[in-house]
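note to self — DONT lose this again. spent like an hour looking for the file last time. sequence + predicted structure for the chain T wanted, 285 res
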Amino acid sequence: MSTPPLLGAHVSIAGGVGEAPPRATALSVNCFQIFTKNNNQWKSKPFREGEITEFQKRVREGGFHLVVAHGDYLTNLASAKPEVRSKSRESLAGELDRCRALGIEMLVMHPGSHGGDGIEVGIDRVSEALKEILPGHPGVRILLETTAGQGTGIGVSFEELAEIYDRSSIPERLGVCYDTCHTFAAGYDIRTEASYEDVMRRFDRVLGLSELRLFHLNDSKRGVGQRIDRHQHIGWGEMGLEPFRLLMADDRFPDIPKIIETPKEGDPETYDPINLDVLRGLLSA
């Protein structure tokens, strides 16, 4: 690979979004991911005066190729509870507006959980919400994240994501975020070259590789197909190093950003550089 891959990490916005670019700079990355607000609260504080300008200036000064946002953890467009669906729509609309204000063009979203009402009902709810919300909030692409399949979650298979694409009727505003831990937990085993290629062929057949806009690179604490979402440091978990070597070396994805969301326990200033260095080292392995 002649040019450096787009490789980054999820970084904190503690102290304001303007503090995120310097944290990413310290990691020597060329892209990064943030929350635009507190990820465990519905409400969001307005940006402080000058905060947007400061963020954009520091992104330019850092030479970053891309910044991605991740939606909050409360939004669930598929919820069985009408009040949650209503709050989720309002929250998503707000996040799209915050991304546009910051100049962020992609927002990662978990498809949600149907709460026992059934996968078809859940997919319909998500699709209808996207169909209604996105036209009024332009400029930002929603990335549907692959999920581990815990409980009544949606997005455990490529086919479920494809259904959201089809039913929302706005594929030009959508993309896919492939989380390696989630897909492994869902049963997509990429630990050998043959199985890796098989999974990528299946993704291409169902969704199209052109729809793959972002990778979340995480090892898994639990085994393949167990449907339990537990991130682990790169090479420390059940996946091992080979899937990440294959992905980093894949010449189909040099321009697809790859973001680590590995555990932050202890000191993330120690663990994030270690995980990033492992991934960089795999390019020459």
